[in-house]
Amino acid sequence: MTSPDEDELHLKDNVHDFNWVPLSLTHVEYPKGDYLGKFLALISLSPFGIISGFIALILFRRDVHTIVFFIGTVCNEMLNLILKNILSEGRPMQRVNYTEYGMPSGHSQFSWFFATYIICFVCIRLHHMNNNSTLETVWKTVIVLSCVSFAVVVSISRIYLQYHTWKQVICGTIVGIMFGSFWFGLTHVVLTPYFPIIVSWLTDINIEEFGSLLSHDCCQSYYNVLRRASSKSTV
């Protein structure tokens, strides 16, 4: 039977035998004393905040469109991982905490996918939401500019912090815009007509109530169905 001291010594030897790697998911480095770098490092964490918001909305609202949007976000991340492993291009600066490839930039692709989808949603899907066309134009413009600014700052942060090259960020931008446009088109044209049916499965609403939905504006009809479902759930 070994003594406690021998067990501790044996454990330390085993620890040194392992190849330890840090979890790089949220570890962002910036030059010490560089306040701009610190700000951009915080901006680099914004995708995790967005994903947390997705999860919260899905858990508390169970909105079908939000779920589909989140699925698109997951597919976008999977596409990024596939492209990185196919292209196998390293990052501009070797870091201990980042061992994956850098082409295309995952943060850039995520931010532009998110921005593109939101812009398409606001400009194409949301219409006749306010009788004041000037006011509607103003808030839509604000949302579009905010989305573009967010994506641009995230992209610049990856270059400034030397996690990616310009080429990797531009590639991520192009892929993000293309996949964001594709996913919105798929959602708006193909999947939206089935949203009321999915809601009926989830809320036990009579399917006959959806007879006229496919011949109307699906977005407005879907909204009306959700309101009726919400009223029934609170009774």
TrEMBL record:
GO CC annotation: endoplasmic reticulum membrane
Top class in the EC scheme: hydrolase
Pathway membership: Protein modification; protein glycosylation
Domain Phosphatidic acid phosphatase type 2/haloperoxidase: 66-184
Presence of the UniProt keyword Membrane in the record: yes
SUPFAM superfamilies in the record: Acid phosphatase/Vanadium-dependent haloperoxidase (SSF48317)
Residues passing through the membrane, by range: 39-60, 107-126, 138-160, 166-186
CDD domains to which the protein is assigned, alphabetical: PAP2_dolichyldiphosphatase
GO function terms (MF aspect): dolichyldiphosphatase activity
Alphabetized PANTHER family for the sequence: DOLICHYLDIPHOSPHATASE 1, PALMITOYL-PROTEIN THIOESTERASE/DOLICHYLDIPHOSPHATASE 1
Protein family: Belongs to the dolichyldiphosphatase family.
Physiological role: Required for efficient N-glycosylation. Necessary for maintaining optimal levels of dolichol-linked oligosaccharides. Hydrolyzes dolichyl pyrophosphate at a very high rate and dolichyl monophosphate at a much lower rate. Does not act on phosphatidate.
Name this polypeptide is given: Dolichyldiphosphatase
Organism listed in the record: Nezara viridula
Lineage: Eukaryota, Metazoa, Ecdysozoa, Arthropoda, Hexapoda
